[in-house]
Every structure is written in C-alpha cells, then in structure tokens.
Design a protein that fits this description.
473 residues; mainly alpha; 28 helices; PPR_P_subfamily; TPR-like_helical_dom_sf; Pentatricopeptide repeat-containing protein at1g63130 mitochondrial; repeat
Length: 473
Amino acid sequence: MSRTRRLPSVIQFNQLLSRVVNLKQYSAAIHLFKDICNLGICVPNACTLSTLLKGLFRENRINEAQDLFRKIVNEGLCDLDVVTYGIMIDGLCKAGNTPMAIQLLRVMKKGRSCKPNTHIYNMVINSLCKDSMIDSAFKLFDEMSEIGISCNAVTYNALICGLCNLSRWSEVKMLMEEMIGYKIYPEVVTFTTLVNALCKEGLVDEAEDVLHIMKQQNVIPNVFTYNSSIDGYCLQGRLDEARHMFREMRRKGLKPDVATYNTILQGLFRGGLCCDALVFFDELQAVGLKPNFYTYCNVLDGLCRNSQVERALLLLDALEHKGEEHLHISYYNIVMDAFCENKNLDAAQAIFKGLDSKANVVAYTIMIKGYCQNGLLDEAQYLFPSMDQANLSPDEVTYNVIVQGNLRNHKYEDAAKFLEDMDAKGFSPSSSTFALLLDLLDIKEHNSTILKIFQKWSQSTLNKNQQVKQLVC
C-alpha cells in the first residue's frame, strides 16, 4: 500500500524539515534528510540544505555542518545557491574559522553558476576585521572593485571598525572621505563605531567632532552613540560633560537605558560624587527601569570606594529581603572586600560565614587576603586548605595572595611551599609577587630560603625576568 501513496513534494518535505529543525531535533532532521536521499522519496534542493545548515550552526555543531556540506557537494545531491553558500560562510566566520570561509569564497569565485555577491564579501571582510587581519580584509575589498562587485555602507563600516580597533586613525579618515566620495554616506552604525573607538582611546574631543559631523549630515545619534560618548567623558573624569550629554539625550527624545545609567553611575562614584550617583540610581528605578547585575555592582562598589560601607551593607540587606533571584555572590564579595580593606575583619567574617556553600574562589581569596594583610597568617593558612572541602580549587590569584602574605610576614619556608604548589599546578607569580621577592633579595640580611624559592622555581619563569636571573646568579 505504501508504494501506491503519493510521495511528498520537495516543498512539503522542506516544510516538515523546517519544523523538525525549529524543534531543535537536529539528529532527527539529519536522519530524515539521509532517508529521503537514500530512498529517493524526493530530490532535496538548496532550501533543504539551507534549513539543515542553519540549525546545525545555531547549535554550534560546526563539524556536522561541514560534513553535510561536503556530502552534498561530493555527491552532487542538489545545486547550491548563493543563500546556501552564505549560510555556510556566515557560520564558519562566526565559529572563528575565517580561513575556511575564504576557501569557500574562492570556490564560489571560480564557479560558473553561483558567484559571490556583496553580502558574501561583507561577511568575510567583517570576520577578518574582527580577527585584526585588516590588511587581508583590504585585499578582499580591492578584489571586489576589480571584479565589479559594489561595496556598500556595511563594507565600509566593517573596515572602519577594524581600523579603529587598531587605532589607525589617519586611514579611518581617508576611508570615510572615500566613502562619501562614492556617495555612500555613513550611517548611524558607522558613526557610533567611530565614536565608541575614539572614546575608548581617550580621544573624547575627536569623538565630539564626529558627533558634530553627524549633526551636519542629519544623522541622528542613537542610544548607543550617546552611551559611548558618556562613557568617554566619564573615563576622562569630565563628569559635567557626561551629565550634559545625558540631558541632551533626553531632550532629543531618546530614553536612556540601563547601560546609560550604569555608565554614569560608575563615573560619578569614581569621581567621588556619591550623592549625585545615588540620585541617578533612584531615578533609574523611578522611570521604570530595572537595575541589573552591573547596576548593583557599580552602586555597591561605589559606596564602598567612598567610605560608605555600612550603606552598602544596607543595600545588600535590602536585596536579600527581595529574594534569592536578586542576589549574586559578587555583591557579597564587594562588601566583604571593603570590610577587609577597612580592617573590619569581624564584619567580613560574618558575611563570609553567612555565605556557607555559596562562597566561591573569589570569596575565599578575599578573606585569605584580609587575614594576610592584618597579620593573621594562622587563619589564612587554615582557610586555604578548607577550599578543597568546599570542592573549590585555589586559582592563580589565591596562590599569589597567600605567597605575598607569607613573604610580608617573614614566613619564607611556607612561601616556598606555596610557590612549589603553584609551579606544579602551572600557575605563575604575578608582577607584584616578583617585585616583593626582588625587594627581599635586595635586603643584605635576607634569609637564605629566599634564594631557595628562586632555585626551585621553574627556569622558564625566571627567564622572563632578566633582573631576577642576574640576582640569583
């Protein structure tokens, strides 16, 4: 009876396959595809392959996607179109395999029926720029004009972003002039990319010039543009100008988002304007926005930096009353660290003990550092091995903290043991640990154990610092 039934058309099969993929049943989709190929139920087309590839890349099953693509090409199961190649190239680029994407681009270029278009080139150029391979990106850019493929704003934006990341500002200016010369006018994305890059480099005045050009060309800055500008002013400590940009943003009818508030909160707290920052924190909630993880970290850290640890503790208590979903271990760590810095170890211990099983490596490291800084080496030495009981492993920072604590408190034998453990676990001493060891070596009456520490340390590590090597020898 089954042989007399009408077989599904390729369109019907593609609809079924699409639903299976949307349900994330990728193994079932692959089996279904193989069955129709083996049984000859219907001939798959480019749409069939595109559906499968999208699903596989979405789930990061890169090797399976590549195997499927090779099978189609080698067995000639269907004719590939530019959309299918585009999905494959896009997936490879996002997976960090730009060289393979370039190979596919070359295959398309040599082919007769399916040639690469602007969109295909843009994907590869963008990926190369993200990989800081800007010169290779420009080779493809030149290749486009040589074979008659037109560039667009997306092409230029990718290149401008790549140049900005490498601080090649003169080339950015030339490229923008070239872009406008071809009557391809920069969009808000292009300008925002440039403003963001300049602000991160501390070139806030130059970013201001870009904003002025935007206004001249009637390109309206968006929330991301303003956020970048506000961040730039905050990083330079130009807080009045940051607040001016915030007010201008609202005058233009743009609503600041949580990221905007987080940026200005961090800037004001770092500038010591604690009261002003708290006004913005209250305003954020008054306008209906929900503080996120970064908001609370900024406020807690800001209060602690400005000697308002007790107020930070009140906020932490308020978050506890809101419920478990509002809490994060980082909040406790920030306040705990502040108490340690203020030599209030009793308060820090109370928070740490309250964490119980929620304490992470950072929490343990903070307490160990607090004990070491206050000369309580016995407590630090006791807490360090207790991490194993909590199924936690000390990281490189933890080891450096305990080593420095022992060295500062003249516990050279213990410091040597911890350095040996570090070496065995593949960890390295930080620059501050090296500096401390060097200071101890400069002291004429230093203990011979200090030399023993260096001798036991791996030669590869010592070679990184010529000054250390000379002192040991």
